[in-house]
Design goal:
The chain is of the alpha+beta class. Helices cover 31% and strands 15% of the residues. The chain has five helices and five strands, in the order E-E-H-E-E-E-H-H-H-H. The protein has a five-stranded mixed sheet with strand order 2-1-5-3-4, with helices on both faces. A hairpin with a 2-residue loop joins strand 1 and strand 2. Helix 2 packs across helix 5. The longest helix is centred in the C-terminal third of the chain and has 14 residues. It is globular, with a radius of gyration of 15 Å. The chain binds FE2/S2 (inorganic) cluster (2 copies). One FE2/S2 (inorganic) cluster binds next to loops.
């Protein structure tokens, strides 16, 4: 089937099998490999992207479900070679170790900050509850999101 999805502001079209998951449209058809796959069972959040501004786990959606809609991936966050404030905050606050979860964390945090520009730590933890990290213990990730929100003490 044919799908037309606006990805990071650019209309992208492709022919995919009806069973194709959104994450594989992004990674394998469109070459946007910044979105990671870890569990493939909607548990870890490493595949998180924005769909019409809301965070979704792209391994849980069919590519067909994104037809006619807007997707933002980690590749769409930086502008003109400058990191997005969330990326900068993760970098400065050591919000990552291996980095495998980081694209999904950043996208989930972006969705959170669009909803709640000045979240409490509890709201940050709640906003990232669907994203697992096996390296950091989450403290530095929460600090990173707090810093990006401009709410750092
Ligand atoms: S790969 Fe999608 S939630 Fe883990
Ligand atoms: S930094 Fe390694 S899984 Fe999060």
């Amino acid at each position: 089937m044919h799908v037309a999805v606006t990805v990071n502001g650019e209309l992208r079209e492709a022919d995919v099998e009806p069973r194709t998951l959104l994450v594989y449209l992004l990674r394998e058809t469109l070459g946007l490999t910044g979105t990671n796959v870890a569990c493939d069972t909607s548990s870890c959040g490493s595949c998180t992207v924005l769909l019409d501004g809301e965070s979704v786990k792209s391994c849980t959606l069919l590519a067909a479900q994104a037809d006619g809609r807007e997707v933002t991936t980690i590749e769409g966050m930086a502008t003109d070679g400058r990191m997005h404030p969330l990326q900068e905050a993760f970098h400065r606050n050591h919000g990552l170790q291996c980095g495998y979860c980081t694209p999904g964390m950043v996208m989930a945090a972006e969705a959170l900050l669009r909803r709640e520009p000045h979240p409490t730590d509890a709201q940050i933890r709640d906003g990232l509850a669907g994203n697992l990290c096996r390296c950091t213990g989450y403290v530095k990730i929460v600090e990173s999101v707090r810093a990006a929100a401009g709410a750092a003490p």
